[in-house]
Amino acid sequence: MIKRRINTAFIGAICLSIAACGTTESNTPNPTYETYIGVGETFKHTHFQDISGRKIDLTQQAGNKLIILFATWCSDSKRTFSELNASPLVNDDTLTILAIGREENSNSLAEFAKNYRVTVPLITDEDRKIYSQYANKGIPRLILLDENNRVVKTLIGESGNIIEQITWN
């Protein structure tokens, strides 16, 4: 009976780790979730066009920035946007928030925006050209930038309350 419980617990743990979209902080060693940009480094992408055609230039955006790399199919990404909608961050005029849909097109992002009441600019990354410059896997990935577009912190959010971990200190 004990052996059966151990096997069941072990199999359950494996299933949870495989099913997850990703969780860890970038400064925590984790061989499966690599981060290719570190604290203090400048975010490589500064110019975007969102799904409505609006051009966004991060160099012209004052204050802190929050970049969310996500996928519409990921339950952790869905929860993160629900948490974001419930937080004061989404209404902070001193904060620029961009959401980049990994392997997503304009149609899937527009549908996601409607279903999850996303009001921040959504950017497509159909071929992972943006995402692959910052990480190998793990979504949603939140990259916090300072006023000079330098990385302050990177979070991978599969655990609840990831929005509460967002600070620029």
UniProtKB/TrEMBL annotation:
- From which residue to which does the signal peptide run? 1-19
Q: Which compartments is it annotated to reside in?
A: Cell envelope
Task: Name the source's superkingdom.
Answer: Bacteria
Q: Which GO biological-process labels does this protein carry?
A: cytochrome complex assembly
Pfam families given in the database record:
AhpC-TSA (PF00578)
Matches recorded under InterPro entries:
AhpC/TSA, Thioredoxin-like_sf, Thioredoxin_ResA/DsbE_sf
Predominant location category: other
Q: What is this protein called?
A: Alkyl hydroperoxide reductase subunit C/ Thiol specific antioxidant domain-containing protein
Species whose genome carries this gene = Pseudoalteromonas luteoviolacea NCIMB 1942
